[in-house]
């Protein structure tokens, strides 16, 4: 039998090609984000807050997790402060040390910078003593996104893992926050999607609210 090819071989090759395309897109999209001037970034963070508050509200009592912005990410703090003012409990992820399993845990956050400790990869996170919570809603940082709700992060697979909880509990509602320039258009072929990738319920940018239709490929 010449060149027997198993399904596993084909899958491995396809996965490698997806990872390669993601890496190339990541470099392009990160460069675009780095070029955004500070005032434009601040205005965008406020516009995202306004868009989020107008269009997609978590149900009363929902615990909402955000992130502490790094590497020029869209600043979610105006959004998080507005949600706290509406009575939502806020949470932030704690990042495990490099080399440990890439599992995020979420802990209550009082919304102040002073209560945070330095974490891996220049993140800041609540101390391990902060009460752990299971967020109902997650505001997710993005390197890139497309109109189907596919997302691209730094490549660690951290968010993909927590958007699909292993425990069988309900998955959190994931809302991506991003600059409009982080969109990968259909003319670029959209974002490559691997089987582990979990789609976003909505993406809020300074220009638009994108709500992919459930069931879209
Ligand atoms: N603001 C924010 N917080 C977050 C994330 C995030 O994407 N953004 N995470 C999302 O997962 C988790 C932390 N995971 C991260 C994984 C990689 C890198 C990163 O910058 N990687 C660099 C290498 C940095 C280094 O090695 O020192 C890179 O990929 O080039 C950052 C955060 C939880 N907290
Ligand atoms: N649920 C999962 N189970 C097993 N492996 C996973 C899972 N999610 C992601 N991975 C692995 O993690 C690696 C990075 O995935 P990917 O490139 O999609 O990360 P990302 O979405 O860019 O990053 P992040 O989720 O940290 O923002 C891949 O090698 C992938 O195989």
Written account of the structure:
The protein has 217 residues and is of the alpha/beta class. It has one domain: NagB/RpiA/CoA transferase-like (Rossmann fold, 3-Layer(aba) Sandwich). The protein contains 4 helices and 12 strands; from the N terminus they run H-H-E-H-E-E-E-E-E-E-E-E-H-E-E-E. The strands form 3 sheets. Strands 6-3-2-1-7-10-11-12 form an 8-stranded mixed beta sheet. A two-stranded antiparallel sheet has the order 4-5. A two-stranded antiparallel ribbon has the order 8-9. A hairpin with a 4-residue loop joins strand 11 (202-204) and strand 12. The chain is globular, with a radius of gyration of 18 Å. Residues 1-5 have low confidence and may be disordered. It binds the ligand Nc1nc2c(c(=O)[nH]1)N(C=O)[C@@H](CNc1ccc(C(=O)N[C@@H](CCC(=O)O)C(=O)O)cc1)CN2 and adenosine-5'-triphosphate. Its cofactor is Mg(2+).
**Helix-strand topology string:** HHEHEEEEEEEEHEEE
The CATH class is: Alpha Beta
Task: Please give the radius of gyration in angstroms.
Answer: 18 Å
Largest sheet: 8 strands, mixed
Q: What is the number of E strands? A: 12
Q: Work out the strand percent.
A: 15-25%
Q: Largest sheet, order of strands side by side? A: 6-3-2-1-7-10-11-12
**Average of pLDDT:** 92
Q: What ligands does this structure carry?
A: ligand FFO, adenosine-5'-triphosphate
Jot down its keywords.
single chain, 217 residues, alpha/beta, Rossmann fold, 8-stranded mixed β-sheet, two-stranded antiparallel ribbon, 12 strands, 17% strand, globular, disordered N terminus, binds the ligand Nc1nc2c(c(=O)[nH]1)N(C=O)[C@@H](CNc1ccc(C(=O)N[C@@H](CCC(=O)O)C(=O)O)cc1)CN2, binds adenosine-5'-triphosphate
């Amino acid at each position: 039998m010449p060149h027997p090819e198993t399904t596993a071989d084909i899958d491995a090759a396809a996965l490698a090609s997806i990872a390669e395309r993601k890496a190339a897109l990541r470099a392009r999209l990160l460069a675009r984000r780095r070029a955004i001037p500070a005032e434009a970034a601040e205005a965008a963070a406020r516009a995202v807050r306004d868009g989020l508050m107008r269009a997609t509200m978590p149900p009363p009592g929902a615990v909402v997790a955000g992130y502490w912005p790094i590497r020029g990410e869209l600043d979610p703090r105006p959004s998080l402060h507005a949600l706290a003012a509406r009575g939502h409990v806020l949470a932030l992820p704690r990042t495990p040390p490099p080399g440990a399993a890439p599992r995020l845990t979420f802990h209550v956050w009082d919304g102040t910078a002073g209560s945070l400790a330095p974490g891996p990869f220049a993140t800041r996170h609540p101390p391990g003593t902060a009460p752990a919570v299971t967020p109902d809603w997650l505001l997710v940082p993005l390197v890139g996104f497309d109109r189907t709700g596919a997302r691209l992060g730094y490549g660690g697979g951290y968010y993909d893992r927590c958007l699909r909880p292993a425990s069988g509990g309900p998955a959190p509602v994931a809302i991506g926050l991003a600059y409009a320039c982080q969109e990968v258009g259909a003319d670029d072929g959209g974002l490559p999607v691997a089987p582990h990738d979990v789609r976003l319920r909505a993406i809020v940018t300074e220009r638009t609210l994108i709500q992919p239709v459930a069931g879209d490929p």
